[in-house]
Amino acid sequence: xxxxxxxxxxxxxxxxxxxxxxxxxxxxxxxxxxxxxxxxxxxxxxxxxxxxxxxxxxxxxxxxxxxxxxxxxxxxxxxxxxxxxxxxxxxxxxxxxxxxxxxxxxxxxxxxxxxxxxxxxxxxxxxxxxxxxxxxxxxxxxxxxxxxxxxxxxxxxxxxxxxxxxxxxxxxxxxxxxxxxxxxxxxxxxxxxxxxxxxxxxxxxxxxxxxxxxxxxxxxxxxxxxxxxxxxxxxxxxxxxxxxxxxxxxxxxxxxxxxxxxxxxxxxxxxxxxxxxxxxxxxxxxxxxxxxxxxxxxxxxxxxxxxxxxxxxxxxxxxxxxxxxxxxxxxxxxxxxxxxxxxxxxxxxxxxxxxxxxxxxxxx
Length: 364
Description:
Helix content is 36%, strand content 21%. It is of the alpha/beta class.
């Protein structure tokens, strides 16, 4: 296949290198340029041939991944996917990596790495493909603003939000008159959210967010944002109140839905199937917001690969609510906003740095 994307794997584990290599080689549009044990060897290879994507371990003996990532992003920005352990320390380091400019995270456990990565083959390939298609100029701008598997493996059917929440009008008296801002994003979204949320005043209406991110990483991400923002930011827990001055981030591996409990707005955090191939799913959140808040919503879809959120944003739009999409020039990956625009779900496309003004205007 012509124009294959060249991938460089950097990980000190021979097992991880072998599994990553065999998995990514199963994709016809990806080519493994090299698989090396640390950044020193990587730099030697990169002197002769520069990769389109780097899959980078965090903890390595001669030079750690964060140091190498900073060097790359300062000297020659390149899409980087971090390979991180499912631990508190791993998630914290990954949040730092995302702030430096990494565009995605591949998770790996401390034991059972081969089986874990093999089971996650489709997600791994999609993450690397998404990184390869990223808009590095937009990524650089958003970072600056934020200071052996075969392709024949059966893929589960792609489900829509019906799998979690039925479509249709809510019962009389169950629609809230409170204002709510709902945001959906994926690749490049961590940097985009860091560019938006710190600019918002503490009395901003409640914000509910789905950012595609693995389990255990959303908590570290929310804690990082909480230190940067006038609003309170937390990883959502079941029955959390949705109130002004608070941002709730859907936890990785769980769907988040908005609901009305008497006079209160709360979130429901629940398990369920993948929707639009994601959990949490933007479509699930957006449908619940359309049913619970309707025309009092500001719906925003931002950078990300795929179509999750397009159908849900159309449901919000059809209630008479205002809907926004991040424009192509400022997106790291324009996939999700593009699909929403094509569905007729978007009132207005705007640049990333204009979104805070729209949110403040919504509150006035």
